Amino acid sequence: MRRFRAATAVAACYAQLLGAQSLASIEPVRPVGHIYERPYLPASIPPVRPGNSDRLAGLIRAGKLYLSAHDAVALALENNIDIEVARYAPLNLKWQLERSEAGGALPGVPSGASQASAVTAGQGVQGSQSAAGVGGGGGAGSGGGNAGNGSVSQIGPVTQTLDPSLQETTTFSHRTSPQANSTQSLTLALVDDSRASSTTIQQGFLTGGSASLSFKDSYLKENSPTDALNPSIAQSLSLSLQHNLLQGRGISVNQRNIVVARNNLAMSDLAFRTTVSRTIASVLNSYWTLVADYEDLRAKQNAFDTASQFLEANQKRIDLGALAPFDLITSKSQLATSNLDLINSQTALSQAELQLKNLISRTGLADPALASVSIVPTGVVTIPDVDDTPAIKILVEKAYANRSDLKSDQASLKNSEISGIGTRNGLLPSAQAFATVTNSGLAGNPHTVNGQVPNDFLVGGAGTALRQVFGRNYPTESIGVFASASIGNHQAQADYGIDQLQLRQSQLTVSGTRNKVEVDITNSVVALKQARARYEAAHANLMLQQQLLEGEQKKFALGESTSYNVIQQQRDLARAKASELSSLVTFQTARINLDSIAGTILEANDVTLSDAMAGHVTR
Questions:
Q1: Do residues 523 and 562 share a domain?
Q2: What is the b/e burial string over 525-543, where b = at least 16 CB atoms within 10 angstroms of the residue's CB?
């Protein structure tokens, strides 16, 4: 038997040392592949972890879950659903930061994408008609633009897209166009084969500007005898620059979302700590409630057993003629009352057990192995002999230093102030300066038209056109300014006013929360001291009631007391025991509440954030 107990103890210690099972990581895995392929592959997001840690199974022996307060805390860190949900917040914020660093509009807003025109203006009959402003049945530029772009409504200016983007469009077309006036084409039906491609790379800047480099290539072959170059190739290279002058200008304005996202990521530990602290407080309250319920059940069972024994003793006295039959009714009433108290105590214990199971397991009662076991708490509700509560001033200083919710409130205020840069900048009119430099080239096979031969400079293929482009033989340059101002500017004024008023409300709320800390700590210390005093009084009363019951029972055995008096003392003893248990639970609750308000509940229970984040308690 000793060997069996020793083996059981060693197995339990080994299970606790190993802790939780090696759970799969919930960290998204970035795609693997060629550098040009990786950006377009999805990350692998691991599935949720529905199972419980091995620690839970290791604590179940002979159909019972033996649990200490530290075990309950460890199981909650490994299996609690709320903590598991909170683990995803930092991962989500990392992706939010990555998206903010890419710039651009709000999520879900489409961006416009233009297609390459079918024919360059001035190239062939169709291009000549387009250049002259004459519609020609699907002429130049019919490749389509971007119709129906989404509109963005955002407080403050929208940051430029900071990721470089590459866009390439190629269009092949065969077109037959009837000619109502054949003067230009000298044919009743103009048939052309064309190929148009456009490649654009664009880059935005945090300063509030963007640059784009675009290369266009157009090939045209048609049946018109009036084309001096047929087939022909037209190419162009354009560099465009655009920059905000008022609204949307400045690094501080355009990187505000990035700064906020970085702050949120840094704050994720604070939010996680807050969730863990609240969960641990709930677990400890539930655990000690269960411990007290077991003690209460024992007390109610003792009261029931005592009432049963007293009823049996009275029945024997009645049989011997030493007691009136009427006294048996009083004994039966006391037994019925004790039985009802016992049933109520069993119900309360079952409810506390279910609540604790839900806190320390991901599956709850859905797991048959957990649903069928009963929790046996190994902890004992005690009150320290010496009141070691620190001074209120020290507790307040700890709260300011350790309370993650207070730090989160301060960080949120800072984020609101940073976001306010955008709403303030949004008051300014919209003004942009832009400049474009375009170099064009044209080449093709020569044809004599009306006795005229095209210039040899234009005769050739794609290489000839490229030499013209890079030789800047046909440059086009433009520069300009665009400005737009809202008359009255009521929307921007309202956005700024709303933003600042909400910021002032938040500042007052945070200030009120900090001021309330000292009040809450003072009340908690007073509640803790009162709970200690209540326990001491209740314990002393219990000892006295025990002595009174024993004395009354002796008097009753000698015939100097009545059954009513004995039953009354039994009831008083049961109430005294319940009062002592209630004071013990009140003290534990007050102690946990004080640790929570002071921000020291994790340290008081040897909880580290690294273990909580990993979901694996190593101690």
A1: yes
A2: bebbeebbebbeebbebbe
* Co-location of 39 and 183 in the same domain: no
Query: Given this model, what pLDDT does residue 143 score?
Result: 40
Task: Tell whether 597 and 528 lie within a shared domain.
Answer: yes
Separation of alpha carbons 200 and 293, rounded Å: 73
Where does residue 497 rank: exposed (0-12), middle (13-18), buried (19+ CB within 10 A)? exposed
Q: Is the pLDDT of residue 131 over 80?
A: no
pLDDT per residue as tens digits for the range 534-555 = 988 988 998 998 898 888 888 8
Burial tier of 29 (Cβ tally within 10 Å: 0-12, 13-18, 19+): exposed
Nearest one of 603, 191, 201, 260 to 416, comparing CA atoms: 260
Which of 250, 243, 242 minimizes the C-alpha distance to 213? 242
Asked if the peptide bond before residue 178 counts as cis, ω within 30 degrees of 0, the response is no
Check residue 365 and report its DSSP letter: G
What's the rounded Cα separation, in Å, for the pair 142 and 451?
Answer: 33
What whole-number distance in Å separates Cα of residue 541 and Cα of residue 573?
9
Q: Tell me: do 325 and 401 sit in the same domain.
A: yes
Q: Count Cβ atoms within 10 A of the Cβ of residue 448 and give its class: 0-12 exposed, 13-18 middle, 19 or more buried.
A: exposed
Question: What domain count does the chain have?
Answer: 2
CB 444 within 8 A of CB 231: yes
Structure tokens, 187:
């044919």
CA separation for the pair 231, 431 (Å, rounded): 44
**Contact of 175 with 192, CB cutoff 8 Å:** yes
Mean pLDDT of 420-424: 89
Phi, psi of 346 (to 5 degrees): -65, -40
User: Rounded to two decimals, what is the model's pTM?
Assistant: 0.75
Which domain, by its residues, includes 512?
Answer: 14-96+260-413+500-614
151 within domain boundaries: no
pLDDT at 109 over 60: no
Same domain, 554 and 609: yes
What token pair was written down for 248? 């949307």
Q: What is the pLDDT of residues 43-94, one digit of tens each?
A: 888 898 888 888 888 888 888 999 999 999 999 999 999 999 999 999 998 9
* Three-state secondary-structure class, residue 493: helix
Contact 403, 88 (CB under 8 A): no
